[in-house]
Amino acid sequence: MKIDFPRISPELSLRNFNDIFYEEDPILEMCKIEGSAFENEALDRVRLYNSVIKNCKFTNTDFSNIDMTDVCFENCDLSNVNLSKSSVHRVEFKNSKLIGVNFVESSIGNVKFENSILNLAGFGNSKLEKVIFEEASLKSADFYDCKLKKVEFQKCNLDGANFDQTSLKGIDISSSAFDTLTVSIESLKGCKVSSYQAIQFATLMGLIIKD
């Protein structure tokens, strides 16, 4: 599946989230933020466009209602960050930590999570379209009542993930691993799984498989 990657200008100015902390209409665009720490803060309705963010820490910060377009995060820590009700489009997360991140009630499109940790991440009631999770850890991640369209899980750890009330029709999880998964039989219709996973699901559903 092809997705639209961030369109980022080659000329970026150095900025910091502290630069917009007291602004009534906080916006950062055409900038590079590197080696910055913005932890345990709250900044509502931030707009972040055309930017590169590297080696930064945002743990426990509230960025609810954020609008992000054309942004690349690399080697960042967004653990326990509140990104609920956000708009996230053409964004990449590379080698980043997003443990317990909150994406509830968000719109996420043309986004790639690569080599990142999203254990306990919450995506409940969100719409994900053209999203790639590549070699990501999603242990106990919550996808409750999500709308998934053209979403790929490539070599991910999905152990304990929750897909309750979420249709997996057309979704390919065959290259990913899990011991347990919360999902209904109805939601599994049309999901692409490996033969080993098919046996796992049968076992989880209480079937006794005989040779």
List keywords for this structure.
Pectate Lyase C-like; eight-stranded parallel β-sheet; 5peptide_repeat; Pentapeptide repeat-containing protein; mainly beta; elongated; single chain; 211 residues; 8 strands; 1 helix; PA_immunity-related; 5% helix
If you had to describe this structure to a student in words, what would you say it looks like?
It comes from Neobacillus paridis. With 211 residues, the chain is mainly beta. It has one domain (13-204): Pectate Lyase C-like (3 Solenoid), CATH 2.160.20. It has one helix and eight strands, in the order ββββββββα. The chain has one helix at 195-204, and strands at residues 13-14, 27-34, 47-54, 67-74, 87-94, 107-114, 127-134, 147-154. The longest helix has 10 residues, at 195-204. The model has no long low-confidence stretch (mean pLDDT 95).
Question: Low-confidence parts, pLDDT < 50 over ≥5 residues?
Answer: none
Shape: elongated
The CATH class is identified as Mainly Beta
Radius of gyration: 18 Å
Please state the second-level CATH architecture: 3 Solenoid
Tally of individual helices: 1
CATH superfamily: E3 ubiquitin-protein ligase SopA
Strand proportion: 25-35%
Pfam family, one: Pentapeptide
Protein name: Pentapeptide repeat-containing protein
Organism: Neobacillus paridis
InterPro entries: 5peptide_repeat, PA_immunity-related
